[in-house]
Design goal:
It is a single chain. By secondary structure, the protein is an alpha/beta fold. The protein has 28 helices and 24 strands. The strands form six sheets. Strands 18-19-17-16-20-23-24 form a seven-stranded mixed β-sheet. The protein is elongated. The relative contact order is 0.05.
Amino acid sequence: MNKQTKQMPMLALRGITVFPGMLVHFDVGRPKSLKAIEEAMTRDEMLLVVAQKDAGVDEPTQDDLYEMGTIVHISQVANVKDSQVKVLVKGEKRARILTIENESFMYADVEEIQEEELPEGDEQEAMIRTIGELFEKYASLSARITEEMIHGILSIKNSVEIMDMIIAHITLEVEKKQEILACLNIKERMYLVMNVLNTEIKILSIQKNIYSKVKKNIDQSQKEYFLREQIKVLQEELGDKDGIMADAALYEKKIDSLTISDEIKTKIHKEVKRLTKLPGSSPEVGTIRTYIDTVLEIPWSIKTPENTDLKHAHHILEKEHYALTKIKERVMEYVAVKKMSKSVETPILCLVGPPGVGKTSIAQSIAHAVGRNYVSVSLGGIRDESEIRGHRRTYIGSIPGRIVYALTQAKAMNPLILLDEVDKIMGDFRGDPAAALLEVLDSNQNSNFRDNYLEVPLDLSDCMFIATANNLSTIPKPLLDRMEVIDISSYTEIEKLHISKKYLLPKQLKKHALSAKNLKISDTHLLYITQHYTKEAGVRNLERTIAKVCRRAAREMVEKDIKYVRITSDRLREYLGMPCYLYEKKGEEPEIGIVRGLAWTSVGGDTLSIEVNVMKGKGQLELTGQMGDVMKESAKAAVSYIRSKVDTLDIKEDFYRTCDIHIHIPEGAVPKDGPSAGITMATAIISALTERPIKTDIAMTGEITIRGRVLAIGGLKEKLLAAKRAGINNIIIPKQNKKSIEEIDSNLLEGLNIIYVSMMDEVLQYVFA
């Protein structure tokens, strides 16, 4: 192989590899490339063309170009538009770049490579024939190569030129073409060409097979389309444009297979008969079809087998929820009675409690425990009676009510249907949804419930209905009377701790790809999160806060490349910021006119310091701290009681004329109401009038009458927890609440001294320091 060195203008090509003997045209627009062509035309019309490694580079250097290129002869240059020409060149010989000068245009020192003839022999002849046969096979699979091109290439006498022309006509990546261009050993180049042809033949064969399958599918689809069109024409001739007769036959078959009452069958058969008599163009056809489809979708005779295994039901309820004892006991009672008698009425329950305490989720667990399908019907904000009972079919766009949809969705006639937010339904001029629910929730009527859309009786007696509500006062009395109300109170801090340990923390660890091994958090810190970063009746915000801790811990582990994180007090502040809620502890010294009361709020219990000042004046009673009407009346009742006991209490008889009394409850931005602060306000007024200090380790709650009787109050569990949290162990409560104490968990009462009173005189025996 002879080598010669010379200098010549050079052109960098994008995505094109030119082989010797190849005739190719391309557009040129880069300024340096245009100058290189001008230089070549003024000389001998010879130019070196080299492919770029990366077509995206606009100003290529020697490192951006392949080493091997081709010397070409410029056959034609034609202007296309300003600053762009079309060039036709023919490849002459291979050349290797030695150096490049890159100034106004690219100029290269190149080493010309003179190809040697392939030596004659049987092996070489066999290889050339094999290449020719492979190329013919490739051309038979490729639509781009014509018969004339095949004969023209294979008629070339020079074996080296044949290989170059074959590769030039095959669709290949630039890298693969450059590999063949740079291969100077003729025998190795022949093997490379054969490998390329074999690979491309395989790929084209697979493509052809895929195309044949796709074409077969398309042909089949076209055939089906033509057949369907022919059927339509025949149906039009028979007056059955939309295939009504065929659909009617299918409907009749489905109806006969259903186990339903004669009344329902007669009604559906009647609708099918109406359908067959209507012309296909009638707008009623779609309406009747929708009605029949809706009726047939109802699971008329399908019921899921119920679970009557007490142990299984108990295991599921305890596994999925902590506490909620009342509702669990009611479900266990139902399962036990169901086991003894199959004809027992299903309960209709109403779970009442603050948001986030698990009313909806316990309903899902009950469905799981008793073996019923679960479906939820959201009632919040609905105003139209038709949402429950359905629209009459005389209206355009009429649909069945939500109860029918619930049965269809549950795919059984004995599901557990959750009526969520039943206290949020509102009536208006379109009717009262609560009135429609009366029939649904009445066990004596719901076996024959009629939806306005269906117009046939629907048996709901096997359904278990569970309603949820936050407030009973907004539920109409007749509706409330049809439900068994179960109160779900807010969780105590100890209950929240158990819930977070058993349910919330494992759930969030799994959700954030963590485990108990790489995120370690103690009970103390979980309780601290509960007390100081959340203030709610349920656990929704607690779960969000635990999720935030998990996210921050995961981030810290990734950023610092550590194996685990242990939650400390400092880390909690770093993750969550300063505590959001602080609780007032008991005072250190006894004070005059300040008494600690206990209050119930929608997010749990709390303590209230009721302050009283007595000043010289004209007998005015000033009440501040956003007190409600009931609380103001309690304050007036307390003053009346004190006036009737001035001799016993050693108070001036005319205090109500000579003194002004100011009662204030701190946190003035928070509205407060209720009668349970009665004895607390009375005690504070007596302390201020007699100037006797009150013990710091005592708190109280109870309604007062003008005769000094102490009456029962509510929310006792939450109030006791608030006192315990404030470090107050002596609690005065009405004697009438003794039964409520017996229902409270003994762990909560541990360390508390409960003092029962029935008269205000008894209160005063315990309070003064």
